[in-house]
């Protein structure tokens, strides 16, 4: 049984990558297969990139971020979602970045700097103080897009290339593992599954306590109000009854 240092999973990117890769079974052979598929994949990169942006354009919610200034590209303030078209500068810019991403995937050595890049790709979609733009793409869309891109790549690999079936299957498998690793490098910036530190636990407990106290005091005030209203109603009914029945 291997020992895993939980804290390092959250503080040491290389350690996290090695843990996830080891767990998934993403090996040097998988990396080599991805490299060898380079020619086939590079040929379909433009079509994949276009399909990615057509997909994002299909939904208003996934088009919103492109009306905002991005890291490395100012979008005129007051630009609305409807102003952004497939021909806009911002989309051309984003398509270039996505093209680089896919080309790097089939060309880069799996060294610390590439893993850092993959991690940054996940991180840049959040509203991290490490960037100037305030864009925050919610995880639901990132996960959906990873599924979509992965399906497109798999479809391509299943028909393209002059491979025997074993190599083809192994290549599809290698890409599939890669996309799960990339997904981890998105998810880590959205999910909160790290064990809390002592300070965070105390802050959370205090917050909970404050909420409970506020709720108790609201219930007490409501109870007092109802009691007061009940008493007032009783007095009023008593007074009416006295007028009707007891007065001569
Ligand atoms: C498969 C999933 C995705 C991949 C691989 C991906 C890839 C990338 C890359 C490579 C960058 C540039 C990183 C850099 O500058 O170094 C980027 C930035 C960006 N992506 Fe994605 N993306 C994905 C999903 C999405 C989705 C679903 C949206 C929108 C709904 C989106 C919107 C953006 C935006 C707005 C930026 C610029 C962020 C900023 O400047 O603050 N991406 N993406």
UniProtKB/TrEMBL annotation:
Keywords, ordered alphabetically: Membrane, Transmembrane, Transmembrane helix
Under Gene3D superfamilies, the record lists: Globins (1.10.490.10)
Is Magnesium there in the keyword field? no
Q: Name one GO molecular function term.
A: heme binding
The record's annotation in Pfam families points to: Protoglobin
TM spans (from-to):
223-245
At the top level of its lineage, which domain of life is listed? Eukaryota
Q: This protein is called what? A: Globin-sensor domain-containing protein
Give the organism the record lists. Answer: Coemansia biformis
């Amino acid at each position: 049984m291997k020992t895993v240092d939980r804290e390092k999973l959250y503080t040491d990117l290389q350690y996290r990558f090695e843990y996830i890769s080891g767990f998934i079974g993403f090996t040097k052979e998988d990396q080599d297969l991805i490299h060898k598929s380079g020619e086939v994949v590079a040929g379909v990169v433009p079509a994949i990139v276009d399909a990615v942006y057509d997909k994002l354009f299909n939904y208003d919610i996934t088009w919103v971020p492109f009306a905002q200034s991005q890291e490395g590209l100012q979008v005129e303030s007051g630009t609305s979602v409807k102003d952004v078209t497939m021909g806009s500068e911002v989309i051309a810019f984003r398509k270039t970045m996505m093209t680089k991403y896919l080309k790097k995937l089939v060309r880069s050595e799996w060294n610390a700097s590439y893993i850092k890049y993959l991690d940054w790709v996940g991180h840049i979609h959040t509203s991290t103080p490490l960037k100037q733009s305030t864009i925050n793409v919610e995880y639901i869309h990132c996960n959906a897009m990873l599924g979509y891109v992965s399906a497109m790549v798999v479809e391509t690999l299943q028909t393209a290339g002059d491979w025997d079936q074993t190599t083809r299957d192994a290549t599809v498998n290698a890409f599939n593992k890669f996309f799960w690793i990339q997904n981890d490098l998105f998810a880590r910036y959205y999910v909160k599954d790290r064990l809390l530190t002592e300070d965070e636990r105390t802050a959370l407990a205090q917050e909970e306590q404050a909420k409970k106290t506020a709720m108790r005091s609201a219930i007490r005030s409501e109870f007092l109000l109802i009691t007061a209203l009940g008493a007032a109603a009783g007095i009023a009914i008593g007074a009416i009854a006295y007028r009707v029945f007891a007065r001569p």
